[in-house]
Amino acid sequence: MRGTQRHILTIVVALLALQLGSLVAPAYACGCGAMIPDKAERIGVDREESAVRWDGRTETVVMRFHVHGNARRAAWIMPVPGRADVALGDPALFDALDRLTEPEQRDRHYFWPREGDWPFDSTYGDGAGAAPPGAGSGVGVVGRERLGPFDVARLTATDPEALGDWLRTNGFELPERLTGALQPYVERKWEYVAVRLAPQERGATLYGELTPLRITFSSPELVYPMRLSRLARTPQTLGLYVLADHRMEPRSPIGGDRPEVTFAGRIERPEGAVAGLTGDRPVRLTVLEQHFPHPERIDDDHHLRTVADTPYRQVEYTDRLLTVGGGIPVWLLTVGGGLLLAALLTAGVARRRRTADAGVRSTA
Predict the structure, then answer these.
(1) Which one, of 166, 192, 170, lies nearest residue 181 by Cα?
(2) Taking a C-beta distance cutoff of 8 angstroms, is the pair 211, 66 a contact?
């Protein structure tokens, strides 16, 4: 028995060590760009969320990252098909989108009592049983501005090596593998948004939820750059809110798991932060979740296409004991009624027997 316990403990320790190792492993790529820390520092992207607005001509991407690691500074690179304008995003946007797309809540009733229901609730109804509710040769600097904690440079490049030199000249290490990954964008004459991230508090590390960044550019199709994510060292998760005239979905999984639609519907009157992105006209919202267990298999950008405007909303069920009349369990009434009926029938049979016996005695 002790040998078995030691074996289990060894496995648990090994799994914990593996998990801790993954928390500090370099993750150079995130959903649509490359996150590059200073040398000897590490940064990992736990999750990337992006809200994408496309009106048929112009695309706006608002991005929010959840990061971990010990990096005090980092660079982030995003290829874009056209000249980009960059601004800070509204931090309230994703909370507003979450409220619009939260699952529908429904009750699902069951007949027989379960653990936590009387008479199996040993706590006598105290609620314990309920669930808790630059630039060098080959690189052009189109513009550069300071936006809060971001130093943003909009770049053109005719040579991936030149782009790497520019980044290194500005104090950031560039993974050698990134140079080759940039080649398809150079060939298509895309431009780049290079961002230096640094906490406003001196000496602090980049950790947790970063301020959203808003990037706008012209595009004849809805495209979400993903190729650089193939450089990630750890599995990646993408959450994508797509706001367009119709429901939009990726043409292919591009090397990840099949994208899952978690919401599709029409927003009649956008308000607040959502209206700040879309305007006040009606718009279709599609929410996509995708997991990339093997980022090295990513082989393209996400190209999204129009599909049928079929609405969809997830449903979350709350299981409740079936009751009537102010909380009386139906099973108790059913069982109690059955027992009462059985008792009445038994009493009736006994009464008829006594009457029959009395009749026999009087005749005798």
Answers:
(1) 192
(2) no
Q: Of the candidates 342, 251, 318, 315, which has an alpha carbon nearest to the alpha carbon of residue 288?
A: 251
Place of tokens 């982030």: 76
* Helix, strand, coil share (%) of the chain residues, nearest 5: 30, 35, 35
Which of 90, 86, 91, 45 has its CA nearest to residue 193?
A: 86
Q: Dig out the tokens for 255 from the structure.
A: 């090397």
- pLDDT per position as a tens digit, 117-146: 666 654 434 433 333 334 445 888 898 888
Q: Is 37 exposed, middle or buried (0-12, 13-18, 19+ CB in 10 A)?
A: buried
Torsion over CA of 55, 60, 65 and 71, rounded to 10 degrees? 160
DSSP 104-123: EEEEEEESS--TTSTTS-TT
Q: Quick one: DSSP state of residue 89?
A: P
Pair of tokens at residue 107:
């009750």
Largest Cα–Cα separation, the chain: 129
Structure tokens at 48: 């990337």
Contact 215, 193 (CB under 8 A): yes
Contacts of 291 (CB under 8 A, 6+ apart): 235, 236, 237, 238, 256, 257
Number of residues that this document lists for the chain: 364
Strand partners, 35: 76
Residues ≥6 apart with Cβ < 8 Å to 114: 120, 319, 321
Encoded amino acid at 295, one letter: P
pTM of the model: 0.71
pLDDT digits (tens, 9 = 90+) for 43-101: 666 566 899 999 999 999 998 876 666 666 666 788 999 999 999 999 899 999 999 99
Q: Which tokens belong to 359?
A: 């009749």
Nearest to 63 by CA among 72, 55, 53, 75: 53
Alpha helices (runs of H) in the chain, residue ranges in sequence order: 2-24, 93-101, 160-169, 176-187, 272-278, 330-363
- Neighbouring CB atoms inside 10 A of 63's CB total 22
Q: How far apart are CA 199 and CA 197, in angstroms?
A: 7
